[in-house]
Amino acid sequence: MAELTLEELKPAFSPEQFCSLSQCEPLSFADLQPRAISGIHRLANFSGDSPVMLLNGFPGVDYEEACRQLIEDAKGQDADLFDLCFTENLNNPFKPIWLQLQPGSGFEFCDMVAELLKLANHHLDAERLVTRIMRKQNDDPKIGDFLSDLTAHVALGLQFQHPVLINLLIHHEDKQAPVIFGRDLNWDTLFGSINYQTEQGSVYANHHLLEPGLVREANGGYLILPLDELLDQPHLWFKLKNAMQTGLLDWNAYQEGKTLTPFFSPEPTPVRLKLILVGDRLDVAEFQILDRDMSERIFLRAELVSEVNVAEQLEDFTRYLAGLMNRWELLDFNAAAVAALCRHASRLCDHQEWLSLAEVQLSALMRLADSVARDANADIITAEHIHEALNEQDFRLNYLVEQSDLGVIDGQILLQSDGEEIGQINGLSVIQVAGHPYDFGEPVRLTATVHLGDGDVADIERKAELAGHIHAKAMMIIHGYLSNKFGAENPSPLSANLVFEQSYHEIDGDSASLTGLCALLSALARQPIYQHFAVTGAVDQFGNVQPVGGVNEKIEGFFRVCKIHGLTGKQGIILPATNRLQLNLSDEVLEAVQQGLFHIHPVSHVEEAIELLTGCVAGEPDIEDTLFGRIQARLDELNGTLPKRGVLRTLLGRIFSL
């Protein structure tokens, strides 16, 4: 298969495709979420009691902003809004009662009750005022009972516990459904609390010392809660779940002994809200373990997508970038800068045909480029400013990469990028360091040796317990391929050892299975491998090469080693053909490819890879003068020269075989 051209090594974005961002109509992240739009629309128009929706996202999502816009655009049915007040229970002052008022009428209700008290205290007729109050509150019977008790209380000349009769807890002046995002949650902030006062050594509470909490504030609207906070404090979820199922929220304190006046017990309030739980898939998985009943309770789910397709939504993506520009009040981006941003977004999702919507990373690059442009007194951000921002960021974060390269420079890490060796090959790995913001590629040398045995492939990493389960599976697949290819009729008399040289930490994954298989084939055929190649790819038992991850980091890692040793014009990478669309290489590698100093070879089968690595035709086991034919001949020769069983036994064996 022909090596890849320069155009195939990066996404096809050009300035001619774009205009400056100031010419684009901005879009938000929420505008690019069709699944979430559908889910919020259904939630907004749901008529049941306290529905719950689960919104699956990914790290870095601004859930609050996304949910607020999704809800604003949903245009759902009129919410069941109400103002909420607490007042003294005229029959039992230690058990204040709530009154549910029409939305936006709370202050007016308080003023009218105050006027009613004046009339009652002066023994004036208040019937017309009572009728007016009841009309404004839709003849709520509970309010009617309260007004009757109030006038009777005053008529009897009884005193009130507090000079201000009503505590207006919740007031919706704009008559809009509240959208509340909970953060830094605890029992009191979520469910409300009872404050206490002391006077002359006595502790007391009254209805004016009640704090409503987020749940009561969200009544008639939406409450958005991050799953990770509920996972840290599971008792919050179970309390909330119980309140939503019963439709009532009490005033119980969480900590034992916190209720200083146990005889003071306000009436539980109604709960009617729409709950949205937000988090990534790991949070959801942990939440399902926490509450197995969750799947029955939560029947509305939606996904926030992290990528958009280039062919279908390139224009929408540029409008999304325009929205980020406006949000952070950045300088304008010209067409070339937009193309550079799109290429970076493509690199973030490791696919030439998809663009990442990761707001944190995109905003960070745009803001850094804006700072670079302002330092240069530029009026507009260009592609050069984008590249300089990326280079600065790479310089600040590449200390570990430089330390890795230093081992190659000092000769402490033994790698070859020229010459030929039997049973030795350059593999490619991706290094992930805890706390480091990005992964980087690092070549590794694999060696294979063969010896008389039972045909087993001994993986040193697995025996040393330095390999994960997927790596162990890959080694078994290699054994399966060799057994199928060369041991279908006779067992192999050779065993092999395969090792990752100078590897001192745990490895996992199957991306080195093609590399290890080629090293074993070289050792079996006694055919040297060109060391100017590095190989990555997974294989199946039939030798088909399968895609792997981290191809850009792997290629750039081997390119760094080749630069240290000196580019010869022969060096390159062998990778799965199915990884072609994941390629988005750095400008430095692209320049070397353009000059013919570095090469990228796609392969679909192990035979193509071994032919590139050895310069020999792979052929078939039954065809002489081919690589596989030489391997089969060697195995057959060894099978025919096993230790002799003695002259007499051999002679009798030959007689009876006639």
Automatic annotation (TrEMBL):
InterPro entries: AAA_32, Lon_proteolytic, Lon_Prtase, LonB_AAA-LID, P-loop_NTPase, Ribosomal_Su5_D2-typ_SF, Ribsml_uS5_D2-typ_fold_subgr. GO terms for biological process: protein catabolic process; proteolysis. PANTHER family: ATP DEPENDENT LON PROTEASE FAMILY MEMBER. Pfam families: AAA_32, Lon_C, LonB_AAA-LID. This is endopeptidase La. The keyword Protease applies. Belongs to the peptidase S16 family. It comes from the Bacteria. Its EC number is 3.4.21.53. It catalyses: Hydrolysis of proteins in presence of ATP. Signal peptide: none annotated. The active site is at residues 511, 554. GO terms for molecular function: ATP binding; ATP-dependent peptidase activity; serine-type endopeptidase activity. Keywords: Hydrolase, Protease, Serine protease. The keyword 4Fe-4S does not apply. Residues 419-616 form the Lon proteolytic domain. It comes from Aeromonas simiae.
